[in-house]
Design brief:
six-stranded antiparallel beta sheet, Arc Repressor Mutant, subunit A, Beta-Lactamase, alpha+beta, 2 domains, 10 helices, 9 strands, single chain
């Protein structure tokens, strides 16, 4: 294979993966929607989908002409190693914490300047935060983002401060102060920072080598999760995070 052929093959793989990543936030998409999202002509996307469908990675609904992830994705996910997956290991502890506090419990890990919800246990209350797994959120908004930055590598905060994500200098300075408080107190909170009517408190999870692995968050409506209630729950959340961290390999 020539160098040019190799580049074309790799580019085709990258484009196919871009198509699959479109299903991160949507369960079904049309050819037109996929074409717009990946920025490619419909004919190119159609060929990619045909290859993916042939291997079972996507499936097409003949009636609606919309595409969904195929069953081959389930086969792959079934073989994910749970030995190093914090979301799978700490799920029972998250469920226990949910039962004690009555609110939605989430686990976040950092990916560059975003945080990803890798596990969640929904509150059983009628009015509750719904926390879809796989959702990507910015680091500069929310309690979990503060925890991941405050307890992460020092250069991460400087890198984040240099980004054009701040509404103004006042917001950036407020975030910097909140990082200092999180580091000092061992937790961070947020009140309607990203979503109206929602509040959250988050603490770090360290593995047995005391390396930051994830942020553990408790979220709910501001009517229940008041500042006083969050402070009251801090010891319980920190205890749960400590037990979770002791389960994780260095």
């Amino acid at each position: 294979m020539t160098t040019d052929d190799s580049k074309l093959t790799v580019r085709a793989v990258e484009r196919a993966l871009d198509v699959l990543l479109c299903f991160t936030h949507d369960s079904d998409l049309s050819l037109t929607e996929l074409s717009a999202r990946v920025g490619l002509h419909k004919s190119t996307v159609h060929r990619l989908l045909a290859s993916l469908e042939g291997k079972g990675f996507v499936r097409r609904d003949p009636a609606s002409e919309r595409y969904r992830l195929g069953y081959r994705m389930w086969e792959l996910s079934a073989n994910l190693s749970q030995d190093d997956e914090p979301g799978a290991i700490v799920l029972p502890e998250m469920e226990r914490l949910r039962d004690r506090l009555g609110e939605t419990i989430s686990l976040y890990v950092r990916d560059d300047l975003e945080r990803i919800r890798v596990q969640a246990v929904q509150s059983n209350q009628a009015i509750r935060r719904v926390a879809p797994i796989g959702l990507r959120l910015p680091l500069h908004l929310g309690a979990s983002g503060k925890v991941l930055v405050a307890f992460g590598e020092p250069e991460l905060a400087q890198h984040l401060f240099a980004q054009e994500v701040w509404a103004d200098e006042e917001q950036r300075e407020a975030f910097e102060q909140q990082l200092k408080e999180a580091k000092q107190n061992g937790f961070a909170t947020s009140l309607e920072e990203r979503e109206a009517g929602a509040a959250a408190i988050a603490v770090p999870i360290f593995n047995r080598a005391h390396r930051l692995v994830a942020a553990l968050a408790v979220s709910g409506p501001v009517s229940r999760l008041t500042p006083d209630k969050m402070l009251e729950d801090v010891p319980e959340i920190l205890d749960a995070a400590g037990r979770m961290g002791s389960m994780l390999k260095p």
